[in-house]
Design a protein that fits this description.
binds 2,5-anhydro-1,6-di-O-phosphono-D-mannitol, alpha+beta, binds magnesium ion, 19% strand, 365 residues, Fructose-1,6-Bisphosphatase, Chain A, domain 1
Length: 365
């Protein structure tokens, strides 16, 4: 064997060298996430089969196998992290409120945010789905994490990553020193480094948006998409259009090939000018990864990593990928969408209200 084999455990361990005072706790959380990813991957791969088996075994079923896959993923990540003494609190897209660490377990210095299985409408049709996670450091004084520890700006993230359950399973993460991708070798059950130091290619190949919503788009976004359609992919062809409808898969493709993903705020409902993507579980994590890979993520106004959160389930418009393409979206919005901006800014600038923050936004959209 000539090629250097680096497992994710080894890689995460070696990354710790960037932090001479590190205790290893943070490293261990990433390793726990890698194990959760393997379990979810196994179940995802046999989802169709499992539901068939579940139906026939229903009389003596243990229950686990029949869980919907997103509930299963949620439960696996919780079970990997509730008892380790590393996390002070957890939050999941599947829960309205902060998930406390059970009182009989110790707590640690980190809060873990996750969307256990994103793109869940794609599960039943066998299309790629993903898990997204991010980690903040707890800064409040008590031993239990609070909502304030969770609702920090993306700029303060210490790590983020995703797992894509696609033609193969990959885990991609950053701990603030580049973005690194690992492919799951199903034979031995190990994530092996396959994509070290991922950077966004300078020339984009694709643009990614749900064209079905064109009737709701703002004037600026319509102009922007027309502009994208006039751009060249660096090989004498127009940018291709790709849309899977699984954020992780759409982001991952554009990260490797160059491109821009947009889920804009739109005019569908005047009371909801903020699109669909969730700030705390989806946008912050991917924005951090994009930045680490040399790209950029904006809500059309400015850097998503600078947006001050006000609710666990807050939503945010997102433009993410090659920096030049994302900045162009900002320019079109500034030029044509002052009306939309006026309706979105009060939501963006909402101040954190601790009493409301727990569930704020869970019903928005
Ligand atoms: P989910 O959290 O309910 O799975 O929804 C999030 C998903 C993203 O993965 C994807 O980018 C988006 O929804 C697609 O939405 P739409 O079908 O409106 O284009
Ligand atoms: Mg989601």
């Amino acid at each position: 064997m000539t090629q250097k084999l680096i497992t994710i455990e080894r890689h995460i361990q070696e990354q710790q060298a960037h932090h001479p005072n590190a205790t290893g706790v943070f490293t261990a959380i990433l390793q726990d996430m890698a194990l959760a990813a393997k379990l979810i991957s196994r179940e995802t791969n046999r989802a169709g089969l499992t539901s068939m088996l579940g139906a026939t075994e229903s009389e003596n079923a243990t229950g686990d196998r029949q869980q919907k896959l997103d509930m299963y993923a949620d439960s696996v990540i919780f079970q990997m992290n509730d008892h380790t003494g590393r996390c002070a609190a957890l939050v999941s897209e599947e829960h309205d409120e902060l998930i406390d660490i059970p009182m009989h377990y110790d707590t640690g210095n980190y809060v873990l945010l996750y969307d256990p299985l994103d793109g869940s409408s794609n599960i039943d049709v066998n299309v790629s789905i993903g898990t997204i996670f991010s980690i903040h450091r707890k800064f409040t004084r008590g031993d239990r994490g609070t909502i304030e520890d969770v609702l920090q700006r993306g700029k303060r993230l210490v790590a983020a990553g995703y797992v894509i359950y696609g033609s193969s399973t990959m885990m991609v993460y950053t701990a603030g020193h580049g973005v690194h991708g690992f492919t799951l070798d199903m034979g031995v059950g190990e994530f092996i480094l396959s994509h070290p130091n991922i950077t966004v290619p300078p020339t984009a190949r694709y643009y990614t948006v749900n064209h079905g919503y064109e009737r709701y788009w703002t004037p600026g976004f319509k102009e922007y998409v027309k502009w994208l359609q006039q751009q060249d992919d660096g090989r004498g062809k127009p940018l291709g259009h790709r849309y899977i409808g699984s954020l992780v898969a759409d982001f991952h493709r554009n990260l490797l090939t160059g491109g821009v993903f947009a889920y804009p705020g739109d005019l569908r409902d005047a009371d909801k000018p903020y699109g669909k993507i969730r700030l705390m579980y989806e946008a912050q994590a991917l924005a951090f990864m994009a930045e680490q890979a040399g790209g950029y993520a904006s809500d059309g106004i400015g850097d998503i990593l600078e947006v001050r959160p006000h609710g666990l389930h807050q939503r945010v418009p997102i433009f993410i990928g090659n920096r030049d393409l994302v900045e162009k979206a900002e320019a079109f919005i500034q030029e044509h969408d002052q009306e939309w901006i006026a309706s979105y800014l009060p939501y963006r600038n909402r101040i954190l209200d601790l009493e409301q923050a727990q569930t704020n936004g869970s019903s928005e959209g």
